[in-house]
Amino acid sequence: MALELTAARPDPALLDLPWRIPLEEWPEDLLAALPRGISRHVVRFVRLSGRVLAIKEIKDDIARREYEMLRNLRRLALPAVEPFAVVSGRVGTDGEPLDACLVTRHLQFSLPYRALYSQSLRKGTATRLIDALAVLLVRLHLTGFWWGDVSLSNTLFRRDAGSFAAYLVDAETGELRSRLSDGQREHDLEIARVNIAGELMDLDAGGLLQEERDPIAISERIVTRYRELWAELTGSELIDDTERWRVDDRIRRLNKLGFDVDELEIMTDVDGASLRIQPKVVDSGHHSRRLLRLTGLDVRENQARRLLNDLEVFSAATDRQGEDEEIVAHDWLAKVYEPVTRGVPRELLAKLEPAEVFHEVLEHRWYLAERAQHDIPITDALADYVAKVLPKKPDERSVLGVDTEELPVVADTGP
Amino acid sequence: MHRVRREHHLYNGSSGTFLPVKEGNDAMATVKFDEATRIYPGGETPAVDSLDIDIADGEFLVLVGPSGCGKSTSLRMLAGLEEVNGGKIWIGDRDVTDLSPKDRDVAMVFQNYALYPHMSVADNMGFALKIAGVDKSEIRKRVEEAANILDLTQYLERKPKALSGGQRQRVAMGRAIVRSPQVFLMDEPLSNLDAKLRVQTRTQIASLQRRLGVTTVYVTHDQVEAMTMGDRIALLKDGILQQCATPREMYDKPANLFVAGFIGSPAMNLVAVPATSDGAKFGNHTVKIPREGGAGGSHVVVGVRPEDVELTTNNDGLELTVDVIEELGADAYIYGTPTDSKITLEGGDDNLAKPFIARVDGRKVPEKGSTVYVYPKGEHLHVFDKDSGQRL
Questions:
Q1: Which of A33, A199, B118, B314 could anchor a disulfide with A205, C-beta 3.0 to 4.6 Å?
Q2: Structural element, H or E, at residue B201
Q3: What tens digit of pLDDT does each residue of B195-242 get?
Q4: Same domain for A181 and A97
Q5: Residue A258: which domain range?
Q6: B274 prior amide bond cis, ω within 30
Q7: Cβ contact (<8 Å) for B118 and A205?
Q8: B15, A187: Cβ pair inside 8 Å?
């Protein structure tokens, strides 16, 4: 059988990889990181044409299914890793057929939760990770995606202005439906709760859980956060006909959570004395879309919120609140944002993404100002941050390995 | 038969949920699909159409069929993950049709079998009970019982890294067993394992189920898996139950053409032949068929398994040209094409021409390219109505 490559934009260099060798035995000099991670399949990271690819060895039909599923999720603008190719028809050097490989692109600046726990952590990291996962799960469920295997290990995290944004990594068990039943959503939530508890208990057993909180208590947060968010995004609300401002209030609340309302159903009661309102279609990315429109910057939701706040401050401080906001935004970009992000020396660029650096510099300025008891110019804050804070941070552009043993489940060799 | 002891509480779990339910767990865990129907929104035909199956306490029932036949949907209806639009589902004497997954006391097995490297084997098996708030001594007891059944007792304090692949697989099973649910549900649990581990695990699951005696519903698309594991098999196609019977009965008395073609490997030869008042004409060989068979039309479909084929060279039977020979040592399979191009073989999902397959004595194998004659041996034939596909 001939080697078969399925990809939207195939990179011929992909054909040069040693597909006739089982993934587990690929030579180390090819690998971008030493093999690690907790996975039921063999997974390896390789560097190819200047990018890092994750390669997972699985059965042909499952690889194709997951490739298509990841493509669909990306089409639906859901946060998931980007599928790159499926390589099938592999034959080993001994003539025996080998499993197919699913190739995905490594998500730059993403962090596996175990890598986060191997750094010294800010307090509350576990809860911030779970909050991010709750947002991801709600977004997936709103779109009709039934995950089936929700866990911290099947998720990657990117920094998002002090909190995290979560991305789906493993869609192997997932299904897309037009709508999920309550039973299906509850099923995912229970899987999430048990997996998270297990993952945190494992960190605890490995001496990596620095926080004193109980893994079980932390794991329960996925359920409460999910339910709160789901209720706010989909729940119906009865308001008095005299309180129509509450319609606007509901929309504002959703915006604050980072969602736009694309469709809101308003129904009057028989007597017309009250209204029932219910969001029907909500779309995440309220702040990031607005920032993109104003500045062309494509950043995550909380980063966008932070940047928009700073833009507001700039607009007020320069007394230009009545002006066309796009023009003000353009000035802010040129005078505030870019000088900060361009002020990071080249050798420190792999530490954090520009928008996250900007967020951190704002935080640092606040900290300096509080200590000095007067305002600090952003240029001074930047200089201090670049000299004292940023160099101590780990490079996070390509964090691939995590500090655990790999546990593939394989057949017994021997009798 | 050994059962995991069930004390005081009953913890249930759809994928790791453990909520106490009121019934004692010694209640009979029969399962009944009672005209259960699922229609997807916007769908014209039901994904599962009036499914009727009675599953006995402790039985291992396999739902099998090609993709899209409704087998997974049926399982999920039982688990509470798929709405039931008509009919009912019972577990024991409880109508669970509208109960949430948590309240059904069923456990989906193997959805996720990640093992945690820093935790001992005992903790890997029992951690979900801890989440459910089961007290320590009870967890320990259940873990020890499960370990005993799974042959893992001496490994309980080790880390999973120290175990072989097969042992890790058993730890994962232990995670499900300690929940002691009324019913185990398994949806293609072996689908992402490599071939060797699949066979090992298949045997393990089947023997474990028998030792535990817990009612189990198992979904697979693989008829070999179904035949080797199930007490009974329910074969579905297009949402409709085709036959529910023991593996032996499915093999010996398939209810219709679809069942006949699906069960058995290599598949049964199904040939449409003319029916006369004497019987069906298999080439120039007349085989007796049930009398009522002739009434439907001038043709019937005669089915004969490869091992039930009589092979002659004396112009008696259906004439074949031998295309391929597969030597198996004691036996050989020959793959032939009827010389009369008007005669084609039925069955299969594709439109490709199917060969006629016969198992022959390994010492008397005809040559490739030669002409042979075949007809069904003695009683071992199956006759189906050509139009309805029903067994006659």
A1: B118
A2: helix B195-212
A3: 777 888 888 889 889 988 999 999 999 999 999 999 999 999 999 999
A4: no
A5: 235-284
A6: no
A7: yes
A8: yes
ipTM of the complex: 0.81
Can you give A115-172 as a three-state secondary structure string? HHHHCCCCCCHHHHHHHHHHHHHHHHHHHCEECCCCCCCCEEEEEECCEEEEEECCCC
Enter the tokens of residue A107: 């998500």
| Distance in angstroms (rounded) separating the CA atoms of residues A201 and A204 | 5
User: Is the Cβ pair B16, A412 closer than 8 Å?
Assistant: no
* Of the partner residues A38, A178, A412, the one whose CB lies closest to the CB of residue B41: A178
What torsion do the CA atoms of A132, A138, A141, A145 make, to the nearest 10 degrees? -10
Residues in chain B with CB shorter than 8 Å from the CB of A151 are 112, 114
Contact A410, B197 (CB under 8 A): yes
Q: Nearest 5 degrees, angle CA A317-CA A323-CA A329? A: 70
Any bridge partners for residue A260, and if so which? A283
Distance CA A172, CA A50 (A): 27
Least confident of B88-92, B165-169, B279-283, B313-317: B165-169
CA angle in degrees (0–180, nearest 5) for B368-B371-B374: 110
Question: Are both A28 and A87 inside the same structural domain?
Answer: yes
Contacts of B81 in chain A (CB under 8 A): 181, 183-184, 187
Strand partners of residue A261:
A282
> Could you identify the residue written with the tokens 């066309």?
A324
What DSSP string runs through B54-109?
EE-TT-EEEEE-STTSSHHHHHHHHHTSS---EEEEEETTEE-TT--GGGG-EEE-
**Final residue of a domain: which of A107, A142, A174?**
A107
Which chain B residue has the Cα nearest residue A172?
B192
- Rounded CA gap, B341 and B337, in Å? 8
| Among B112, B123, B166, beta carbon nearest to A195 | B112
Number of structural domains in chain A: 4
Q: Rounded to an integer, what distance in angstroms lies between the CA atom of residue A286 and that of residue A258?
A: 5
Inspect the interface and report whether the beta carbons of B194 and A38 lie closer than 8 Å.
no
pLDDT tens for A55-80 read 999 989 999 999 999 999 999 999 99
Determine, for residues A199 and B116 on separate chains, whether the beta-carbon distance falls below 8 Å: yes
| CATH value at residue A62 | 3.30.200.120
* Domain presence at residue A147: yes
Q: Are residues A143 and A224 in the same domain?
A: yes
Report the residue from A184, A202, A409 with minimal CB separation from B117.
Answer: A202
Nearest to B150 by CA among B6, B25, B4: B4
